[in-house]
Amino acid sequence: MHISKLAVIVPAFLLSIVNAHPLAPYRTFESLNAVPQGWEEISNKNVDPSTPIKLRIHLAQQNVPEFERTLIDVSTPGHVSYGNHLNQDQIDAILRPHQDTTTIVKSWLESQGFSNDLTFKNDWIVVSTTIGKAESLLQAKYKAFQNKQTGDKVVRTLSYSIPRDLHSSVALIQPTTLFGAVSAMKNTISRVEDPSILKPSGLRLKGGIDAACQSSITPDCLSDVYKYKGFKPASLGASSNKLGVNGFLEQYAQNDDLSKFLKKYIPDAKNATFTCQPVNNGLCTQHPSEDFTEANLDIQYTVSATIPHPNIYFSTAGRPPVQDLDPNTNEPYLEWLEHVLALSDAELPQTITTSYGDNEHTVPQSYAVKVCNMLAQLGLRGVSVLFSSGDSGPGDNCVNKAGKKAFVPTFPATCPFVTSVGGTVGVEPEKAVSFSSGGFSNYFARPDYQNAAVSNYLSTASDAKTFKDYFNATGRAFPDISAQGSRFHVYVGGFDQLVSGTSASSPAFAAVISLLNGDRIAKGKKPLGFLNPWLYGVATEKKGLMDITQGTSRGCSGTITGAGWKATTGWDPVTGLGTPDFSVLQNL
Ligand SMILES: *[C@@H]1O[C@H](CO)[C@@H](O)[C@H](O)[C@H]1NC(C)=O
Ligand SMILES: *[C@@H]1O[C@H](CO)[C@@H](O)[C@H](O)[C@H]1NC(C)=O
């Protein structure tokens, strides 16, 4: 499959060739060699060729390497540009597709009879057409598929082609090969209906931490373990330092559950709240008796740690319909990213946490590259973007796209321009939790900022040798850091329950980052922005991260016996660089 990362200057002679031969030979642009795991074709259902479809053609951007370089420079402490984040107009001006790129794609579409059906956006073109016409434009065959678990239905094709001469001008075309790309990292959410057995014990561990934090987590445990207890964030007014929480898949954060949670765990703050921002017709509904575990977990742990800073819950719609076969099922990450990138600097949160993801190989690479590029744009705007690493250790069923045994990385956690958060459990000592996902990307190469830490791991850790056949040692390694992920008290449907998952770790770490951002802003400094060059650099050197060296992840059951990564000294693929020490990080 082809990925066009770099814009190509299309020579004039090529344009004339395309004009002269509008049907230059087609080449496969992207294909899947099987229906993605978890989906099956609905064999008795033909897709009506007259069904309307809106194809989005994303054009290749210019200057991507320069853009990525700029992001690293503004995010590296000590660099002359550190903290000089750009606004969206400046970013768009860098990345805007070359005029020739737009021209060559437009003339192809016009030559195929689509002159009147085109809408031009920043770096993409929407073609409003029918399934039948899309099939001939893309030499594709759209079919109906169903998700075996959720019953969601989609209309997709397993491959599509475009003229060879256009391959370097097009970044991706959807909806085509993208099935699901989003699931909540709540695979291991475990509910304990009666948490009364876990009341704070009053006993203190050596470090002064409540002994009850060994078996279940409250906001107090986190502020003790990560050393921000007693820190009073400056009140900066409604717009200055905001924390964003991403919600997909009809997960709605509940006010009622939040106030019950605060009443019990942060009695001083019972009227603290969040605002909900609908994206792509998402809803902000309140159903106090329903179980919105993921949304409530995320918002309860971000709000409780960051009072009085505003928290925004982004509620993005875009899940495939269960009933009808509408090919235009929205794709939530792109919809959400377009929404946030369009926010003004004053509206944009400085820290955003997301507890959703999927197996990297089930996401088409062109799509992963596009989403990662947009996440990087957030970093260049000055936003710290955090994602849960996933809840399946080295992988769940551990079979890759080619059907071979392999560890399975999680996307977007593998995007080199986000901070990926693994999970820990226990406080004295704090150890890796067995479900914490980590490993190595097959789509993204290892970025320079983690070269030293990861090469050290690869040359010294015994696991790197034991499992060498199952992972790609040249890939971007994840997670970057970690935080508690096991047995969090969360109010869900009106009751205190216990929830586990790296779903909990990302909001826990994001809250610490948001406190640091608020502190910096109160002192007249720039927000931290993209964190990784700082985390792998000065934050590690100055011991702002507590290295986790015990515990092992587990996964690949039934496929690779004994699969799992051990936490080690330094970076490892289960806890990354370690967990945050706010008291040290605040001084850096
Ligand atoms: C909570 O309510 C009190 C009194 O009504 C008010 O002074 C305070 O600002 C409120 N706090 C928040 C976080 O809304
Ligand atoms: C391994 O990762 C690199 C990126 O570092 C990628 O180019 C390559 O295709 C990957 N190999 C496999 C087998 O996926």
Automatic annotation (TrEMBL):
<keyword id="KW-0325">Glycoprotein</keyword>
<feature type="binding site">
    <location>
        <position position="548"/>
    </location>
    <ligand>
        <name>Ca(2+)</name>
    </ligand>
</feature>
<protein>
    <recommendedName>
        <fullName>tripeptidyl-peptidase II</fullName>
        <ecNumber>3.4.14.10</ecNumber>
    </recommendedName>
</protein>
<keyword id="KW-0479">Metal-binding</keyword>
<feature type="binding site">
    <location>
        <position position="570"/>
    </location>
    <ligand>
        <name>Ca(2+)</name>
    </ligand>
</feature>
<dbReference type="InterPro" id="IPR036852">
    <property type="entry name" value="Peptidase_S8/S53_dom_sf"/>
</dbReference>
<keyword id="KW-0732">Signal</keyword>
<feature type="binding site">
    <location>
        <position position="547"/>
    </location>
    <ligand>
        <name>Ca(2+)</name>
    </ligand>
</feature>
<keyword id="KW-0378">Hydrolase</keyword>
<dbReference type="Pfam" id="PF09286">
    <property type="entry name" value="Pro-kuma_activ"/>
</dbReference>
<feature type="domain" description="Peptidase S53">
    <location>
        <begin position="216"/>
        <end position="588"/>
    </location>
</feature>
<dbReference type="InterPro" id="IPR050819">
    <property type="entry name" value="Tripeptidyl-peptidase_I"/>
</dbReference>
<dbReference type="GO" id="GO:0004252">
    <property type="term" value="F:serine-type endopeptidase activity"/>
</dbReference>
<feature type="active site" description="Charge relay system">
    <location>
        <position position="503"/>
    </location>
</feature>
<comment type="function">
    <text>Secreted tripeptidyl-peptidase which degrades proteins at acidic pHs and is involved in virulence.</text>
</comment>
<dbReference type="InterPro" id="IPR015366">
    <property type="entry name" value="S53_propep"/>
</dbReference>
<keyword id="KW-0645">Protease</keyword>
<keyword id="KW-0720">Serine protease</keyword>
<dbReference type="GO" id="GO:0046872">
    <property type="term" value="F:metal ion binding"/>
</dbReference>
<dbReference type="Pfam" id="PF00082">
    <property type="entry name" value="Peptidase_S8"/>
</dbReference>
<feature type="active site" description="Charge relay system">
    <location>
        <position position="294"/>
    </location>
</feature>
<keyword id="KW-0865">Zymogen</keyword>
<dbReference type="InterPro" id="IPR000209">
    <property type="entry name" value="Peptidase_S8/S53_dom"/>
</dbReference>
<dbReference type="InterPro" id="IPR030400">
    <property type="entry name" value="Sedolisin_dom"/>
</dbReference>
<dbReference type="GO" id="GO:0005576">
    <property type="term" value="C:extracellular region"/>
</dbReference>
<feature type="binding site">
    <location>
        <position position="572"/>
    </location>
    <ligand>
        <name>Ca(2+)</name>
    </ligand>
</feature>
<keyword id="KW-0964">Secreted</keyword>
<keyword id="KW-0843">Virulence</keyword>
<dbReference type="GO" id="GO:0008240">
    <property type="term" value="F:tripeptidyl-peptidase activity"/>
</dbReference>
<feature type="signal peptide">
    <location>
        <begin position="1"/>
        <end position="20"/>
    </location>
</feature>
<dbReference type="InterPro" id="IPR023828">
    <property type="entry name" value="Peptidase_S8_Ser-AS"/>
</dbReference>
<keyword id="KW-0106">Calcium</keyword>
<feature type="active site" description="Charge relay system">
    <location>
        <position position="298"/>
    </location>
</feature>
<dbReference type="GO" id="GO:0006508">
    <property type="term" value="P:proteolysis"/>
</dbReference>
